[in-house]
Amino acid sequence: MKITKVTATSVFVPYEAPVGPYKGRGAGEGTMGGSGLIVKVESDGLTGWGEGRFEFETDPADVLVGRDVFDVEGAVAAMFEAGIRPGPMSGVEMALWDMIGKQAGLPVHALWGGRLRERIDFTACQGIKSPSECAATAREVIERWGFTFLKTKAGDDLEHDIAAAAAIVKEIEGDAILRPDANGGYGPDRAAEAMARMRDVGVNDFEDPCSSDHTEVLKGIREDGTKVLVNEGADSPSAVRGILIAEAGDALMPDTPVAGSLLGVRKIAAVAEAWDVPCLMHCSHDLGLKTAAITHVAAATPNWSGPNDTCYHGLVDDILTEKLTIEGGQIAVLEGPGLGVEVDDGKVERYRQ
Asked: Which of 83, 85, 92, 155 is the most exposed place for a label (fewest CB within 10 A)?
């Protein structure tokens, strides 16, 4: 079965409250919706769909047309060699798995060895807001979608971050676990002090308090009692090796647009498994295709412990024919062939950027 055509469309779907606008560290007006590069791969009457990021600078069709659909590793290697960036490449690789699953009549997780989990946990992400708005958003996502894991952005102003975290912890009263994310914003000189103050207000889980280049600082923070999650720097099996050797993280957070593929993310998880360090998926303001793919990764990868990041609940719509359902902060593992979802071509056109 040979690849005959590869096309890609950049799309944007707006957020509604309480997710949008989503303000990250130094994000100005914030992110107003989910976006992705929707990739369509065709072969012998079958179509595979994937979701990547950014745009192709090299036409993937020039590299892939005529290649065997089942040669996923070969396709990824060929795209790397051609200089295609990981973000758009990840959409092609995802589409190949979708097509292979459809050809086999199996969900993607079955292609990877089978389902270990039936429902997948997700973390409701929110941007930087006032402390009172943070608390109100936390309560809303718990009541509307049943999330038991929450994430708020941080890193611009420590005093604001402490106040916001304290307000959220007071509001959720044990109903959920809060994990702020500073995107390395506190730096190595302030990170330990910042985490001590976070623990004082009840925050014991934290993502990227400083860059993963400073492994000794992250290890010390762990030893002081904070569970450290590492996203920045978790981009390849070789890159995470230093983090793991240094005992700098309690969990790693890879992502397909950075790793370049679902296979790349699973390889990172396999390396981390040797150190008994679990993985969960980072959020790139994902739409339904990638969110569906996350359920397959989490279902089939032993060293996957969730809860994966998501802003999906904030989308006003999706490019799928039917939006995914979040109940109890979870999404059921999809059992249809391939990714188990159908793309609405009309919606792809409607939300084209």
From this structure: 83
- Cβ atoms within 10 Å, residue 9: 16
For residue 223, CA distances in Å to 59, 193, 250 come to 48, 13, 11
The radius of gyration computed from the CA coordinates of the chain, to the nearest angstrom, equals 20
CA nearest to 49, candidates 345, 337, 302, 343:
343
Helices 215-224 & 237-245, crossing angle to 10 degrees? 50
Question: Is the backbone peptide bond immediately before 307 cis, with ω within 30 degrees of 0?
Answer: yes
CB neighbour class for 200 (10 Å; exposed up to 12, middle 13-18, buried from 19):
exposed
- C-alpha 250: how far from its chain's center? 17
| Residue of 148, 155, 159 whose CA lies nearest to 128 | 155
Q: Where are the alpha helices (DSSP H) in the chain?
A: 60-64, 72-81, 86-104, 108-111, 131-145, 158-172, 187-200, 215-224, 237-245, 256-259, 262-273, 288-300, 345-350
Fill in the DSSP letter of residue 315.
B
pLDDT by residue (tens digit) across 191-208?
999 999 999 999 999 999
For the domain with range 111-332, which CATH number is right: 3.40.30.10, 3.40.50.720, 3.20.20.120, 3.40.50.10860?
3.20.20.120
DSSP-assigned states of every residue in 48-83 = EEEEE-S--SS-HHHHHTTSBTT-HHHHHHHHHHTT
pTM above 0.85, yes or no: yes
Give SS3 for 66.
Answer: coil
Q: Which residues contact 56 (CB under 8 A, 6 or more apart)?
A: 8, 37, 84, 88
Enter the tokens of residue 262: 């679902």
> Per residue in 97-124, pLDDT tens?
999 999 999 999 999 999 999 999 999 9
Alpha helices, H only, 114-186:
131-145, 158-172
